[in-house]
Structure formats: structure tokens, C-alpha cells
Batch of 2 targets.
Target 1
Amino acid sequence: MISYGYHRYPGRLFVVEGTDGSGKSTQLQLLYQWLKAEGYPVFFSEWNSSPLVKDTTRRAKKRRLFTPTTFSLLHATDFADRTERDIIPPLKAGAIVLADRYIYTAFARDVARGCDRAWVRELYKFAVKPTVAFFFRAPLDIAVDRIASARPNLKFYEAGMDMDWSDDEEESFKIFQGKILQEYDHMVNEFGLTVVDGTQPIRTQQRQMREIVSRYLKEKLKEKVAASK
Amino acid sequence: MTEMRFYGTALPNAEIEPYAGKLIVIEGTDGVGRSTHVALLRTWLESIGYAVLDTGMTRSILAGRGIKNARTGHTLGRLTMQLYYATDLADRLENQMLPALRAGFIVLTDRYIYSAIARAVVRGADPDWVRAMYGIALVPDAVFYLRIKTAEELAARVLASGSGFDYWESGMDMGLGNDYYDSFIAYQKLLLKEFDRMTGEYGFQVIDAGRPVRRVASELRRAISKVIESDKIVESDLHAGAVLGTKEKDAATVKIEEIPKVKTSETGIAKESSKTAP
């Protein structure tokens, strides 16, 4: 098992993080289009995407079987499958991997639910350290507004209703997101997250993102694609 | 009452308070007869008036089915497998074992974190990582390690049970041998070494499982009655289970000898045990 920070692969791994409604998925999508147009081999990896774990997660959410510990462990299982299947192989092959949410999502969310900080970090020790981890920071009220207008019905775990913070869904969601944001802020220095101000226009954010990403790109990364064409 | 102690970081939101029950672990490699003994112990404990919960790997409501499905495809990565098993244990710990222990049950578990640790470590996982992950596990009141000395003997027992070699039990995912037999031997040797290493670390009580079932069963009963001795098991209780009207020792052993056959065929547990994979 290779620990966080010790993987050496020719590929690049860029991840986006942030609270719900911070605009990170939009930004990653734009980055993906750009990299593809530039001719790089790009792979996309999403949170909760492992076929081995998907059914279990769906059932557990529906039947509300989770505790903070099992929620954390099952998501780590999902992430391990993603790492072994979707992240490490393309990185070894020299591709660019884009991840919508990464281990920092788990650190923020699980600790907000009461899991031990050190324990959760240890759990994910096998993760590949990203080339750059972008943290899209939006003030709490903006993020909550964006989510509330996009999805009027919050899901049980998404709203943190399992924690009994409040009987009101929106209130509970706000408390939960507040705790999550606090954890993210805590991690900026700990993991060297690259903060992007999520209140700026979408194009401004994307320009910043591309500028940073381009520092880590080399023409060599395109070779694989060119050779296969 | 036992103080609640965890190997590492306690479960979040768990009320740390003394519990009335006992957590008893039956450990051992594949084919040593764990599930037979759990079934025998359960009958015996219930016959002397103890409420028993028995549980084992992949029996959680949350993750049991998912693990079984993932295993049939042989596509389960090593890290994924270990985390899936940890999820299964955590679910059973929080939703079955702890509530039962608080309610004063004797919880018998067929394997616990030690099998999971052994399997992970022989597959190259960082030993500290696995141990930290299982830091949420409650320290049991006793761990009985049913020990068979050699992998060859284990192979003979697996064959005698009529089930043949299983993909995961033979460690076929590790590429240790060209066929199931060679792989099984090589894999189980590694596991045995790992179990021996853990014996001191976790204070296993080693039981020689190479002896006839009734001898192993009576040793387990004696040892377990010591664990629950504060509740005073009387000598005659040791030979209950077969519901004897006599205290005569010879009669008792004869009767007890008959239990395994009846119980295993009734419950089908022995058959299932041989399919328990990593």
C-alpha cells in the first residue's frame, strides 16, 4: 500500500472541492472541455460512482441504515474502488484525471458528523495526493440559496437530518453546511488547498483555474493520444 | 459489568458505559470448525439460561449483501475489500453487538477484526492502517483462537467437509499458486503466521482445534465459564446443552459428542462456514 503523498505517476490529478452549491462541478466541466480540446487524454471520476458499492449505498440511504461511522466507512469503500479502478490506472498511463470531490469531502462531512479527525484521515491514507486540489469557497448563505433554488427537496443525509440538529430540513442543512465549511477552512493549510473565490463570475474563476492547471501540463502528456490516433 | 474499551478511537456518539454482557470471539483460519463451535456454544449457553446473540462476517444488514455480490465477480480490489469488511463490522458492532451487550447478552462472534487484519496484511496492506481503521472495535472479553498447526491439515478438513476450495479462501486473487490446492496451502500458511503473530498482541487464548470436536467443545465451555464466572456457572452446567439428567461425567461426554451432528445438519451453519471468504 502506497501512502498519501508517495505515489509517483506520470499522469496528473486535479480535484475540485467545496460545499454544495459552490459552483465546483460547473468549473470542472469547463476544465474538462478545455483539456480535451487541447488534446490531452482526460478521465472523469465522480463521488459515489463505484459499481460495487452503489446498490448498498442507495439502499442504506433509502432505508436510513447509516450511522456516522458506517456512512464514513462505506464512502471510503466506494472511494477505494474508485481509486483502484478509475484513478490509479489512468494516472499510471500518463492521463489527466479530474475528480469531482475527493477525500477532503469525506474529511469535512464525516468530521461534521462527529467522526474523529485523525481516524478519518488515516482511513484515506491510501489516496493519491492530487496535483492540485481546488477549493471553491462561497459564503454559506450564497451556497444555501443556490442549493435551495435548484433542489427544493433536500435529501435526508444531505440535509444532515440523521444528526438531530433540527427538525427543520433547511435549518438542519444550514447547520450542517456551516460545520462543513469550517472543516474546509481548517484544511486549507493542512493540505495546501488552492482557494478559488466562488462568488466571482464563472469565467473569471475558470481563467484562474486554467492558469494554474497549465503550469502542470507538458506537451509530453499529449503523446499518448497522438500515438493512438 | 465490563468497562467499554476500544482498540483506538471510540465510536463517535457511542455512550461509553459499562455493559452487562460479554463479547466472546471465536477466531481461526478457514476450516478450523469455528461455526460448529459457535453453534454448540450457543446451545449450551442458552440451556444454562444465557441470552445469546451470534454474529459473523458479512452478516450485517448494511453491507452483507453488497460484499457477497462483489465477491462473486472476483473484481473486488484489495483496499475496497478491506474497507467493505470494516463497514460490515461497524454496522454489526453498532446495531447488533453493542445493543445486545448493553442488554446483558452473551455475544458470540464468528471471527472479528483479527481475521480481517490477517487477510489485509497478507495482501500487502499497511498493518498500521488496518489497525487504525479497526480502532473503532470494542476490545472483547475473550478471544479464542482455534488453531490448526499446518495448512495441509486445514486443506484436508476443507475437503472432508465436502465443500471443496473456495476462490477467496484459497487466496486465488493473490496469484500464489497455479491451482486451488497450491494456492490454498500458500495462502493459509501466510494467514497462520499472521495469527501466530497476533496471539500475543491481542491476548488470544489458543485452543488446539486438531482434536475431536467434543474435546475442543468442552475446553471452550470451561474457558468461557471462567469468562462469565462472576455470574457463577455451576459445574453441572458445563455438561448441559445436551440437557442431561445426570452429573456423571462419562455419560455427559457421550451425550455431548452427539450434539455437533445434530446441530450442524439442523442449522446448515457448518456448510455455510466453508464459504466464508475474505
Target 2
Amino acid sequence: MNLLEIKNLTKVYSQGGLLSRIKITAADNVSFNMKPAEIFTLAGESGCGKSTIAKMILGFETPTSGHVIHKGKKQKEIRNRKAWLEQGIQAVFQDPFGTFNPLRQVERYFFESIQNFKLADTKDAAIELINKKLSAVGLKYEDMAGRYPNEFSGGQLQRISIARSLLTDPDLLIADEPVSMVDASLRMSIVNLFKQLRDEYGVSVVYITHDLATAYYVSDRIAVMFRGNIVETGSVEKVLMEPKHPYTRLLRDSIPQADPQKKWKDTITLGELEQDEFLRAGCKFAGRCPDVMDICRQKAPEVLNVDGVQVRCHKWNGI
Amino acid sequence: MTILKTEQLRAYYVLDMMGTKKEVKAVNGIDLDIKKNEVYGIAGESGCGKSSLLKSLYGLIEPPLRHIDGKILYNINEEEVDVFSLSQEETRKLRWEYISYVPQGSMSVLNPVTRLEETYRDFLESHVPAKSKNEIFELAREHINKLGLPQKTLKAYPHQLSGGMRQRVTIALAAILKPEIIIADEPTTALDVVVQRGVVQLLKEVQNELNNTIILVTHDMGVHANIADRIGIMYAGKIVEEADTETIFGAPKHPYTRYLINSLPQFGDKSVRKSVPGSPPSLDKLPDGCSFNPRCPHAKGRCFERVPEMVEVNNGHRVACWMEN
């Protein structure tokens, strides 16, 4: 059984004043499934709709249409956000320094969550639970007791934030850009942690990122998004090693490789305004695509199944 | 030819809080020798003193940051000039004409309530001797054109541009007076990968065009591999290793550099990568001996007693580690 099913999820935002109102489709008919104990990456540039999807899975935004189904239950049928999250969904956010109030001891957040979700009766039981969760991320309660957020490094604080989300024994973590604010030298400690949570605790992770190198390293499957559409889905090996969609290829080739032999050779032209791309008829990538054809500007491409990978591109039509 | 040189530069943040004195050793004895027409990369974790070093190089040491010791020498028309011997007015003149600065957050440099052309005028008016408004706008337009940015950006307000475009406008602004040195502090952090590539490209183009020197600070080793000619690895206020880019990536000597490079994931290779263990030391309470010893797997004996000096192990490859000494 699928742990999480996303079915035709769409979110439309209205922008602008009363007279010049335009509609931006932040997520357009997005569908994917997740199995238990799987790391699934949603990749794309800022403004591609990946965070909108995360917010809808968490219930922070109401979808315009479509369904989020977790363990067979539809989100729409569960009224209360707390009850939805109690099913086993938790979030890890981008900026660990923004997650915690700087004037509050970090441990307060743990005790508060324990109280809210009634996870322990006595303080000793609570500390035991906190210790157990912190040990999963390689820390101890003594490291944290009585300390404020500024006393930790970004990597440590992000690990604490993950430990906090583990308190309710979730089976699904939604991690929205969890490493982009963490120093490159400490990044791998977070990414390895997700692997460990998957292998030892059977936790599934939706890993949202624009860093394809860590996505390749950590995840099982990947979906690449562009302006609200998923343009390519499949196993990381297939999608990143032999990208089929021109956008996936552009994204992959733009990652600076830590190897002076593999410098960028060609120059790129940067795109037009974000808004123009959202409103474009036909394929939204047509304005920047190196392989653009006439049909791309007229008709939006359908999802095609090519070699076990779902790709949304006219290039593969009829092959 | 050397364009900028520092000799045992030290700059500390001296804090006096409730009677207790605290010294944060952000720049702790740095020797740099930066050549004309090169891209010099500085890499290191946050809190290692990179930004304080850049501020010092820019001659902008303001309290609580204090200059303790050492020299910064600019090479202006084949003549060595000690920055600390200049008057405030003289350093002001040097900024943007001799050395300019691309800061991290482009939003904080550009005035949010004026159009970009006004910002350009402000910068030009204080340096270019009396010119009419139109002449200055013409100059700015020409410059923007040459760098391949759209004309309409000059008429726009900063918030109307995307983050990548703003950063490119800031780089264009830093290059407008054809400075000998451009200092860029994390110019691509907080940008998307595709935009980042565009910004790095522009920096490289500017450098080719002006034949000048770029000092680039970022913690992204991938960016360094792509653009830098030489790299200095900074740790706890010191440069711990320095070499050309090929050597840093191909044959790193310092254990910290090795961690930095080996921790990066690569396409087509799923073998386990490890971060540098532990966390960076606090710069006001440095450990005895080598500052890296609490995190170093090879630390022993004298690593805990004495600070290693920079030694040249190969032509142009300098390392501060007891294993190489």
C-alpha cells in the first residue's frame, strides 16, 4: 500500500489588484505516490511550486482541487489539522534559526510538543523520551538542557529540529530545503541522518531541494518540477544520470562540480520574468528550451512513459 | 605582480561586557599575496572570520572590530601603499576606483525607494568629476549594455527584479569604475543553481573584460572549482592551506581541506560521505595549539601544544599542519 498518494493536486493563487488580477497556478495537476521507507525528492528552482506542495501535504494550505491521501485517509475528510498530523506527518523547515525562538530554551519546544500530544505523564518519562529521540540524531539531552538556540551551530540546531519532529513517531517527514541554510561542511551530517532514519526507523522523507547532488546521494526517486508541473519522475539513477527532459538536463549541468576538470563550458542565458513563464500557453519551458519545436509553443505536453521514467515533453512523442 | 598583500594581519572584535573583556580573534595572523589578474577564492565555514577578513582588506575596520597588528599593502600604480597610513578621505577615494565590493545580500546595497539609475548616479557623482545627469545615465546605460543586462533594469526599482538579476546589477555596479580589485562576499549564496551559474559567469566575464583581480569568498567548493585560480582555505581566523585550484582539489594536505572536499556528493557516486566531525570553535575561546585539533582525526602530541606555522610543501602550495612540518 502506498503511504502517501497525491492525486491531481492543484493550487491557484490570485495576484494583483481588483482590475489587473491574474491567476498563478502554483501547482498544476500534480500526482505522485510514496511507499513506506522511501526518500522522495521534489526538485526545482524557487517558484516552481515545490514548497506549495509541501504546505498542502501538511495541511497549511487548502488545495484548489485534488487530494492528499495518507495511509488511505483523505485529508479533506479530516477536519482538524492536529488530527491530520497525528496520523504521522511531521515537518522540518529550512532555517533552523527561524524554527526556534531565540529567547526561549530549545528544550521548551520538546516539552510543549509532549504536552500537546500527551506523549508522557511525568517529567522523567518526558526526558527519557527526549533522550531517545535525540540519540537518533546523535545528540544527548545534557547537550541541550537549558541552552538557547544561539548556543548551537546551524547543523546541530537542524538536527535538534529533526529530533523534535520525531517525537510523535511519524512515518512521513516533509523536509523543505533542510540543508540550504546549513554550512556545506556540515550538510552531509543532515543528509546522512535522513538515510539513517529511513533504514533504521522506516521513516519516509519528502526531501525538497534545489541541490541535485545531495538529492542523487540520498533519495530513491525524484520528481523535477518546473513552474507548477512535474516534468520528470523516476528513479534518481535514471532521471539524473540520463535526463530526458531538457530542463532536468539544464538543472543538472548547472550544479557546480567540485572538480576543476569539470568546469562549465557553455554560457547560459537567464530566463524571462517568472510571471511570464507561469502564464505561458503550451510548454512552460519553451522560452528557454534548447530543443524547442513549434508544437511546444501551442500545446502543453502530456505525460509520457519513456524507459520507466515519466516525462512531460513533446520531444519524446512517438518514440 | 602582487596587487594586494597582507603581513601578519590581525583584527579582533574587542568586547567589554559587564567588566569582562572578550577578544574574538576573527582575523588572526593572515599572510596573503594576491596577484594581478587572478581569481583568488577563500573557502571556510560560517564563523571562521571570512567576512571580517574581507572587511579588513577593504580597509573598513570599524569598532567593535579593531586592527591589532600587521599591514595591508595595496599596489597602486606600482607603488606599495599601506592602507592604515592613509587618511579617511584617501581611503574613501580608493573605494570603487581601486577596490570595490559585492556584498552578500544584494537587497541591502540597493536603495529600495529609488530607481536603479539614481543609485548609479549616486555612485558615479561622488567619483567622476562633474558631469551632467544625462552624461552619467548614458555612461550607466553603456555599461549595463556591455554586460548583457537588459536596458530596462535601470528604470526599475530593486524589488521589481529577481534575486539573480539584482545580484548581477550589484556586480555591474561594482565594476563600473574599472577597479583593480573586486571583493565578492558569498555572491551566489541564496540563489538557485541556474541563476548562480549566470552570476558566476558574469563575474568571470567582468574579470576578462577589465583584466583585474577578484577575491571571491564562498563556502561552496563547487563554485571555487569553476572560477578560482588559487584557493585559500580559512579555519578559525587563519589561512590553513593555500594552493592553485588543481592542487587543492587534487592533492589537499590539510585534514580540514580533505574533509571539505571529500564530503561533497558527486553524480554517479553513491558511496557514503561524511561531514567534518564536531562543530567550528568559538573564536573567543580557541583551543591550545592547532585550532583544528578537537576535530582532527590525526591530532597528537604537539598539535595540542603549539600552533603550526604555514610552510611551503611544494611550489606555491602552503599548509599549516604539523603533519607536513
